[in-house]
Amino acid sequence: MKNQSALPKIIYLILPLVVALGLLSAMHAQIIRAVPNAPGDLDTSFGVNGVVIEDVGGFDVGRGLALRSDNKIWVIADSFNGSFTAVQSYLLLYNSDGTLNTAFGTNGVASITPINPAARDGVLEIALQPDGKVVVAGSVDTNGNKDFAVFRFTAEGLLDSSFGVGGVITTPVSASDYDEAAGLVIQSDGKIVAAGNVGINDFALVRYEKDGSLDTAFGVGGIVTTDFPIGVSSGEDRAYDVIEQFDGKIVAVGYSSGRFGVARYTASGALDSSFGNSGIISTVVGSDPFLAANAVAQQADGKLLVSGTGYNDVDGHYAWTLVRYNSDGSLDTDFGTDGIIKTDFGGNSTSNYMQLLPNGKIVLVGDGNDGSNGLGVSIVQYNQDGSLDTSFGTGGVVHTSSGTRATRVIVQPDGQLLVLGYATTSTAPEDIFLARYEGINFGNKIYLPFVVKP
Question: Residue 360 in contact with residue 331, Cβ under 8 Å?
Fold first, then answer.
């Protein structure tokens, strides 16, 4: 009787496992990692051990990236010659595994601009429309003046002839010889806002209709410029990032005479008098003239996060800086120290971009210097309250070997992080750097403590 009763017990114990294995097989789970990589580890299934180094011919800098709905990756880059007297901009398309998509351009690479001996052209930001078209912002040299430039490509990566002139719009924001677009957002109504600077003196925003024509209902003829007064005089102001809020208002951030400059506009381009000081904020983040904000995001509760580089006056280092503002522009004193958080690696370090995760956590990327190993790509992940997320990397921080720099980060639907920048290699002074890191699992991956084979 004992032997007879043991069999049903064994079946009862193993049946759930058999069913689970069958279900996983039906889900085409051919191989599932026995020990999943931890958040912050390089994803070794991408490129070579998680990293792609791309040489497109010169001093190459990855400027922006965007993820298609099929998980292919658009990258924009500038390539300078050895003396930095000529520049050419490129659009690249990568497959989801980090290989170039050879069906696009020439082996995955296409030029955006011709070689410019004036070294004044360049691309700085990319965004995707809901229909898959690719919009790129930067600047071109026009008759000796540097002007805003916006390019639009079809979903296949060809210049879109229905936009501007042959897919390109150039806008002389002023008579200055240095107007440059650095930030870009596609509004919910499909209009395009490019943000940057007019000369080196003021924020400049330009809004375009879907066909590339200037939106004359915005500002003056489609253009808005904003000066941040410092005391009784005007300072140098440059916008580096721009977003559309949930309510349709527009927020631009950047450099304001060594401070974090933040401006909020109504949908028509007027400064929003309900925000800050008649629509503008200038936040001191250290006693150094080169400090600037370079990224902005809106939290689900309407508060604004602004990131960039501040200065640690105690240690004498540039430090990653994160500031949170209430919806009226006042500093959120429940965040960090009076609304400000500084992360000091031990040496001069610069934060270059920010992304919000779907769970509200905050990711910053840039160049981290621990004081002994030199600058390298670094990632810091914060909890919603601004504390370091110790579940990511080492105490919330990931530091890649020196010789690399990060310029952008995006979050994939599965929670992985794509980081773009440039790297110094043994064969080239600077090449495009693209890496994928493990992030938080949002449910699109299955990890089990064993390997399943069909």
Answer: no
Q: Report the distance separating Cα 319 and Cα 376, nearest Å.
A: 14
Distance, in Å, from the CA atom of 189 to the CA atom of 227, rounded to the nearest integer, reads: 28
Is pLDDT larger for residue 5 or for residue 442?
Answer: 442
- Tens digit of each residue's pLDDT (9 = 90 or more) over 81-133: 877 777 899 999 999 999 999 999 999 999 998 766 666 689 999 999 999 99
Q: At 79, which CATH number?
A: 2.115.10
Which residue range forms the structural domain that includes residue 48?
A: 37-103+284-447
Give the separation between CA 438 and CA 416, rounded to whole angstroms.
5
Residue 335 lies inside a defined structural domain of this protein = yes
Q: Is 372 exposed, middle or buried (0-12, 13-18, 19+ CB in 10 A)?
A: exposed
pLDDT above 70: residue 304: yes
Residue 152 in domain: no
143 Rama class: left (phi>0) / alpha (psi -120 to 50) / beta = left
Number of domains the chain is built from: 1
Comparing C-alpha atoms, which of 260, 360, 240 is closest to residue 310? Answer: 260
Distance CA 339, CA 326 (A): 9
Decide which of 23 and 413 is more confident.
413
pLDDT band at 253 (very low <50, low <70, confident <90, very high): very high
In the block, tokens 């009226």 appear at: 328
Q: Which residues contact 32 (CB under 8 A, 6 or more apart)?
A: 24, 446, 447, 448, 450, 451, 452
Predicted TM-score of the model (pTM): 0.88
Q: Is residue 403 part of a domain?
A: yes
Is 262 within a domain?
A: no
Q: How far apart are CA 225 and CA 48, in angstroms?
A: 45
